[in-house]
Amino acid sequence: MRKIKKGDDVVVLTGKDKGKRGTVLRVDESRVLVENVNLVKKHQKGNPQAGVAGGIVDKEMPLDVSNVGLFNPQTGRADRVGFKILDDGRKVRIFKSDGEVVDV
Known about the structure:
- By secondary structure, the chain is mainly beta.
- The protein is built from no helices and ten strands.
- The chain is 0% helix and 45% strand.
- It has a six-stranded antiparallel beta sheet with strand order 6-3-2-1-7-8, with no helix packed on it.
């Protein structure tokens, strides 16, 4: 089980986009792709057969998973994540600061 999953609301902790919030679009081994965060300009060549226009486009690039924290709605800040096994045997993610369960 991973600490950060696709669809999670995260906050960027370091870098040029520090403090920005976004939704995780993809999780690789140690990288996460966050919506509208870490945008770069890409010079893209057009492809008339596919209907793709050329030019300069904004593209999201992956961040290291250590540079993002899961957003805790109770505190309104980023929080660390831990794991806990419930009485019924399920393994769930919890916030380290208050022990609240992330997954319902």
